[in-house]
């Protein structure tokens, strides 16, 4: 027997006005209009909006009843709430705070999550929440750094011999990155004539470099410096007991 696997679930919500609903979700909540179907009477008959991994579909109620006559005697506004997990929750809350769109103020739930709830333009209730990330959480590999004794020859080897695609290059600084398949971590070569102290180093992405630095420093880890600013955030390096060099980096702007 073939195993069933559900891949996506997208609510298709009956509304009085698809146009007004799309306007609310795009202008107020920051969704993007993905596709739509025009109505023979003007305006929209159906539309889809999305942001990140969240997708919603809206269908004009009369057209929805034509498709499913069983819905004819049901109220437009059902007893259903949508639970939305997002990034940037506080920004949205501050934008809507004090307006009639707030259905429930920000609060801490019994399961430890911060949430608030809003009404959309049709009166549907959306509960908004955001994952809480531990500041010292280790997230993934970031990049792999190798010294290049002969920078140009090394660039040629990785690009022409190995066939890797360049991700970026700062030639004046003597640094070039190569993509490995579809993975985000890259192999980064550093020109030893410009950075003579370069040795093979693995960087690991964390939520907050400064928090990790303080935590591990208290455990006796000796870092090569204090956290320092880079183009994309903060970083800090250290060595393990076998003298292998590692680093932590984040993508925080402050």
Could you explain how this protein is built, in words?
18% of the residues lie in helices and 38% in strands. By secondary structure, it is an alpha+beta fold. The protein folds into 3 domains: 1-76, Roll (2,3-Dihydroxybiphenyl 1,2-Dioxygenase, domain 1), CATH 3.10.180; 80-131, 2,3-Dihydroxybiphenyl 1,2-Dioxygenase, domain 1 (Roll); 138-249, 2,3-Dihydroxybiphenyl 1,2-Dioxygenase, domain 1, CATH 3.10.180. It has an 8-stranded mixed β-sheet. The chain has a 4-stranded mixed β-sheet with strand order 1-4-3-2. Strands 5-8-7-6 form a 4-stranded mixed β-sheet, covered by helices on one side. The chain is elongated, with a radius of gyration of 26 Å. 19% of the residues are buried.
- Cα end-to-end separation: 54 Å
Most strands sheet: 8 strands, mixed
Helix content: 10-25%
Number of strands: 16
Q: Strands of the largest sheet, in order across it?
A: 10-11-12-9-13-16-15-14
Estimate the global geometry from the Cα principal axes. elongated
- Per DSSP, the total helix count is 5
List the helices and strands and how they pair.
Blueprint: E1 12-15, H1 18-27, E2 32-38, E3 44-51, E4 54-60, H2 61-67, E5 81-85, H3 89-96, E6 102-108, E7 114-119, E8 125-129, E9 138-148, H4 151-161, E10 166-170, E11 175-179, E12 186-191, E13 201-206, H5 209-218, E14 228-230, E15 233-239, E16 245-249
Parallel strand pairs: 1-4, 5-8, 9-12, 13-16
Antiparallel strand pairs: 2-3, 3-4, 6-7, 7-8, 9-13, 10-11, 11-12, 14-15, 15-16
